[in-house]
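REQUEST FORM: STRUCTURE PREDICTION
Request ID: SP-0412
Submitted by: Lab K.M.
Chain count: 1
Length (residues): 411
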Amino acid sequence: MDNAAINMGDTAWVLISAALVFIMTPALALFYGGMVRSKNVLTTIMQSMFILGMVSVEFILIGYTMAFGPDVNGLIGDLSKFGLIGVGYNILEGGTIPELAFIAFQCMFAALTPALITGAFAERMRFTGFAVLMLLWAVLIYNPMAHWVWGGGFLAQLGALDFAGGLVIHILSGVSGLTICILLGKRRGYGKTAMVPHNVPMTVIGAAFLWFGWFGFNAGSALGANGLAANAFVVTQAAASAGVLGWVLPEWIRQGKPTVIGAVSGGIAGLVAITPAAGFVDVLPSIAIGLIGGAVCYTAVAILKERFGYDDSLDAFGVHGVGGMWGAIATGLWATTAINPDGANGLFYGETDLLIAQLISILVAIIFAVVGSIILFKFVSKFFTIRVDEDEEIIGLDVYEHGEHGYNIRL
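STATUS: Completed
RESULT:
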């Protein structure tokens, strides 16, 4: 390794950002865990934590080379870096950091993405079927999509922009979650029995750490300690803050009371919306992106879900799927080469090509997520029982699936 070519500041920032993104998966476990009923809190937390371990191993063995290996026909990376063979201390091509630092950063993205899906089917999936389904999803859906957008695949060649994962992470996970929850069916008593969060403070703590980790998620995607990272950092804070307002204000008007769950959900919605645009837009547009993102996601959660009747338990689609779509569109509207010369100008800067590329990419992500999730669900269903039995669901998955209680309280 040529140490003279390594920028120590850039390397330190990317490694710190990788650690920040790592925090997001345990944070998601708390965020989701607080929103389920107490009888399923450990199951919900376990799903995120198990994915963190399982997908990290998968990514090191095969995920990285599929997503970022040399391109094969715009569809997938070759297997030349299977098990990180030959990576050693190589410098990332065209960068200033060791490739291993980039691998560490991308590994955390890969682990978080399927964990987001679990919010859609919470409280009703067997652990064995869940583990197999999520592993296959990571290999056969996430890895190809990451290559198409970030690894030099056909969407990158089309001109699509996704700074930190609006297409690859949020649309893909949100739409897949919606598809799987519909295939799985509603929870017993859904719409008739109250299914309220059992521990709102736990959810708030999880949301706070998600927000904290998101600075690594977005600003770390600059792959350097530079002005682009600083811009991504500031627009992340601006959009998240505006997202709180964008969710709480219509909720307050419609329901008569502003809620804590609404505030933290709005913050996450703003973060999701700015993710694809963070390295391409200026500060003022980021406020609009977050504000609209909060309002759009609130509408999806409060109105669309009720109207269509699907049981997206923790609103993975309403926040991540819908928020990711809006963020990808917003990138096509407000992106400017004044912020990132390697990007493109959006519609509001006089060009239409980027917006067209964004719309095509959104459509590709939706179709791939729906079709891929249906195929994988049907395949896994042939070998494993995915849905828990009625009596197990009534008593709770913590005891039946893991033999544990979240709260051992003796009165």
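NOTES: The two ends are 62 Å apart (CA to CA).
Reviewed by: T.R.
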